[in-house]
Hints:
The chain is built from eight helices and six strands. By secondary structure, the protein is an alpha+beta fold. The longest helix is centred in the middle third of the chain and has 22 residues, at 73-94.
Amino acid sequence: MKFERYSFKKKSPQDMITHSNELMREMLNRRSIRDFSSEEIPEMVIYNVLKTAMAAPSGANKQPWKFVVVKDENLKKKIRIAAEEEEKKFYEHRATEEWLKDLNKFGTDWNKPFLENAPALIIVFRQSYDNSGDGKRKNYYVNESVGIACGFLLMALQNAGLVSLAHTPSPMGFLERILKRPKNEKAYLLIPVGFPAVNAQVPTLNKKSYNKSVEVF
């Protein structure tokens, strides 16, 4: 393993405050969107946000992820049909009354038109082991690594001027079947990506205060 000197340019305290404030405001404006326009996303933007996600740290630098971008209309339709089948089972049989009560205030149900309406779906797969070389090799801290990469991705999408939804239909095995993924890959997150529809609405939410979420010793 070779090492190289880390290139670091220190910001002034004022620049640090300015940059951190700009990113904070951008992310405070991020919302989960379920109403998308059909406007296409510039290809270079998709490339840039995925390269950003791939910069995430990972256990032993194994990078145990695969990002699959779906823009094909037929594939999106198949994914919607399969997702709605699982979601209907969830809403009708799997979810507890308490869970449904918590969801009811958001007005969601098993219908998922955004899976077809969004111009692109980014499906993130976790790789439990690596089989790309000369044998099966274990990956480490897979869930943590992929979770961090997804955080990078959601932030990059917002920063690029796009909207998204972190969607987790459960179980998600249908994604592995439809997209013909290898055995070492399991679906982790399904992210519809695009621009908001003109009439897109979001619920009015209150976030916890800083003091309720942060303790400093």
